[in-house]
Amino acid sequence: MKPFSVDIPQHRIDRILSRVRSYEWFEEPDDAGWQYGANGTFMRELCAYWLDGFDWRKAEAGLNRFPQFTAEVDGIDLHFVYEKGSGSASIPLILLHGWPGSYFEFLECVERLAHPERFGGSAEDGCDVVVPSLVGYGYSGKPPSPVDPRDQARFMDGLMTRVLGYESYVAQGGDWGASIAPWMGYDHGADKGGACRAIHMNMFGLRPGGSFPNIFGVGVARLETDEEKAWAREAARRGEGRFGYMVLQSTKPQSLSYAMMDSPVGVAAWIGEKMQAWAERADGREAPVFSLEQILTNIMIYLTSRTFNTAAWQYRAVRDSGNSVLPPGERIMVPTGFADYPRELSPLPPASYLEKAYGNVVHRTELPRGGHFAALEQPELFVDDVAAFLSKVR
Question: Cα separation of 394 and 88, whole Å?
């Protein structure tokens, strides 16, 4: 383990801002809100703030407020936050982000999970909190070729066991993390002699295998009951018009990357639109729920690390490998928890379908608020739900 802090050379920051400053704006339809993608009025406001109000050094200080390290696992340097818990027997907990997120999503949750006594709880309920940047994301190393969630699971298990020396840990994830954590439970689960003792997800990621083709062309278990079919219809309704990016990134991510790696405004539009569309919004408003500071901090992690390309590769990797589903007939048997946020991209399926992939579901909750970026949107609700799950698997 080597101590790490985010300290981006000024010339890299200057180049990013220069590209933003020289951006040539263009037309959009008269009736454009967000239905065509990133809204032009918002993008102009975001970029004006980027140039005249956003302080990257202040954002860096926020990213550096917890201890960070890098360590090599299977030839890749992994970056991670590591905050030891207050208790005498803290549970090791790894928090796994996805795309277009980053480790930044979880930073408001770290202290609450590691030191609950500071928020009215008991120190003995604290966790040793580990928040990595996934391979090819943020300040972790870049793979020589695309890695899929099952590969990510191997790296993350190596971080927890070979680097940090834990014989037992719990994995939590959303977005890609909701596929990585299940693969950790399947390939490295305690029921098979591994160290992953339990998993918790805030999204239905890894699916049961079968014969019905999914969006990646891989067979998933068929829908059988009326309840399961109603769930699929609702999932399709929520997802309508939202997954064009996935088709592109799972087929030709490198072509997209030639544009994005040279355009900070392009990356801001591509990622910022997802942060607007996938988060919970109230009263019909279209403006993103996140502050400009939050949006730009997340975007700048991609820009300063130059990882838009390698992060997008993961979509192609999972299409090629088929590891978006479990092997047909297989189930994950470590204790499993799910949190269902009302504005998630897809609702959780009924128990009959969920249990085709997860054979030991001990925790399932419906949260009153929140969308896809649960930890960033609703840190208190997120922490409370994870803590409730941990109380069942200690």
Answer: 13
Distance CA 374, CA 279 (A): 8
Q: Residue 309: pLDDT band by 50, 70, 90 thresholds?
A: very high
Q: pLDDT > 90: what percent of the chain?
A: 88
Which is nearest to 219 in space by CA: 345, 359, 357, 326?
Answer: 326
Q: What is the pTM of this model?
A: 0.96
Domain ranges within the chain, ordered by starting residue: 66-235+324-393
333: three-class secondary structure by DSSP: coil
DSSP state of 341: -
Tell me the C-alpha distance between 206 and 220, whole Å.
Answer: 10
- Cα–Cα distance measured from residue 51 to residue 205, given in angstroms and rounded to the nearest whole number: 37
Rounded to whole angstroms, how far apart are CA atoms 248 and 70?
31
Using the predicted structure, report yes or no on whether residue 35 has a pLDDT greater than 90.
no
Q: Tell me the β-bridge partners of 80.
A: 69, 132
Model confidence at 281: pLDDT above 80 = no
Fold annotation for 66-235+324-393: Rossmann fold (3.40.50)
Sort strands 219-220 and 169-173 into parallel, antiparallel or unpaired.
unpaired
What is d(CA 263, CA 25) in angstroms, rounded to the nearest whole number?
Answer: 13
In angstroms, the CA 271 to CA 265 distance is 10
